[in-house]
Amino acid sequence: MAEVNKGFNRVEEYLQIIQTHPLRMGLPVQAGIVFGFDHDTPEIFEDTIDFLERAGSRMPHSTF
User: At 61, phi and psi to the nearest 5?
Assistant: First the structure.
């Protein structure tokens, strides 16, 4: 997230946080995902879906 000056986003920690946060208490997690950075490749879409599945996303929904 350095290219958009978001140093507080720790992407490498997202899965652990989603799965273990004590305040989650079974509530779904909402995510805002941005595509289209210069370094994104077509694989970004499949990688993102894989991550959402591992994180336990149950109700994917998209807005364009």
Answer: -155, 145
The answer to whether residues 55 and 14 touch, using CB atoms and an 8 Å cutoff, is: yes
Q: pLDDT digit of tens for each residue in the chain (64 aa)?
A: 566 666 666 777 888 887 777 666 667 667 778 888 888 999 999 998 888 888 877 666 666 6
Cα–Cα distance, 64 to 60 (Å, whole number) = 13
Note if the pTM is more than 0.70: no
Residue keyed to tokens 């970004």: 44
Q: Decide: 8 and 19 in contact? Cβ < 8 Å.
A: no
